[in-house]
């Protein structure tokens, strides 16, 4: 009887976890020809778009070839920003596959939400706490519907940290846009130690119960869901670096 109860509990937990991961199908947009900026909400100026594209084109000349892609959408269509951004990151294959150094900035003005996803390779340069501080720095602009200025600030500060990580000269990457913003960010993480411990124990229990009572059936389903993903290619303005793993972290804000 006790084993049956544990099996039922483990099954319910695994189903919930699987639903969180897979959710329901999201109608994600395709890449634009420019790749590095996709202003579907039509809120960015031509100068900001040019700044984003030119910065990324300068990154293409480097060994690591990081990518910072900015996407604005009219609506998330009821989806969570975290799930939407992760799946879009994976669909567009952002970042250099070798270094897993892609960054996605997703802005949804109708829902008043913004999210930054960071690839594993840049987790050290841009931990969750630092990304959160960058978003907070631009929150006033976003709250006042000055989306163009807010995105420019966020992009610049993210790129500035990428430059520092790889030893790039800001003047070479930003050119005329160098030294336009400054912020003192810390290395603090958004998630405290106790919540992390609880999450680890919860996940450990789920997978232990799965292997104990279901021979790893649900674990296999979850792993297969992670391994799925499309292969897309951008246009002449830029192209996917075939990275596509956003598990490094990130942060989101309402405004």
UniProtKB/TrEMBL annotation:
Species for this entry: Alkalithermobacter thermoalcaliphilus JW-YL-7 = DSM 7308
User: Looking at the keywords, is Ribosomal protein present?
Assistant: no
Q: Where are the transmembrane segments?
A: 191-209
Q: Which residues form a coiled coil?
A: none
Keyword Membrane part of the UniProt annotation: yes
Instruction: Fetch the PANTHER family from UniProt.
Output: UPF0603 PROTEIN YGCG
Pfam families hit by this protein: TPM_phosphatase
Its protein name is: TPM domain-containing protein
Annotated ranges, domain TPM = 37-155
* Swiss-Prot/TrEMBL keywords: Membrane, Transmembrane, Transmembrane helix
Which InterPro entries does this UniProt record tie to the protein? TPM_dom (IPR007621)
């Amino acid at each position: 009887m006790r084993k049956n109860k544990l099996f039922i509990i483990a099954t319910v937990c695994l189903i919930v976890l699987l639903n969180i991961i897979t959710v329901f199908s999201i109608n994600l947009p395709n890449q634009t020809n420019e790749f590095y900026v996709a202003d579907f909400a039509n809120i960015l100026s031509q100068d900001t778009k040019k700044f984003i594209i030119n910065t990324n084109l300068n990154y293409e000349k480097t060994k690591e070839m990081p990518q910072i892609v900015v996407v604005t959408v009219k609506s998330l269509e009821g989806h969570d920003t975290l799930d939407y951004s992760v799946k879009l990151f994976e669909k567009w294959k952002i970042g250099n596959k070798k270094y897993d150094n892609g960054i996605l900035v997703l802005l949804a003005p109708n829902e008043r939400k913004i999210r930054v996803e960071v690839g594993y390779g840049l987790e050290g340069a841009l931990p969750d706490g630092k990304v959160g501080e960058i978003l907070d720095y631009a929150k006033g602009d976003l709250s006042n519907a000055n989306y163009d200025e807010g995105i420019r600030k966020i992009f610049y500060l993210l790129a500035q940290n990428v430059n520092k990580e790889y030893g790039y000269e800001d003047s070479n990457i930003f050119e005329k846009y160098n030294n336009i913003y400054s912020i003192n960010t810390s290395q603090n993480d958004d998630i405290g130690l106790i919540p992390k411990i609880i999450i680890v124990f919860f996940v450990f229990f789920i997978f232990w119960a799965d292997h104990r009572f279901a021979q790893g059936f649900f674990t296999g389903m979850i792993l297969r869901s992670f391994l799925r993903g499309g292969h897309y290619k951008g246009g002449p303005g830029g192209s996917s670096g075939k990275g596509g793993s956003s598990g490094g972290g990130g942060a989101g804000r309402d405004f």
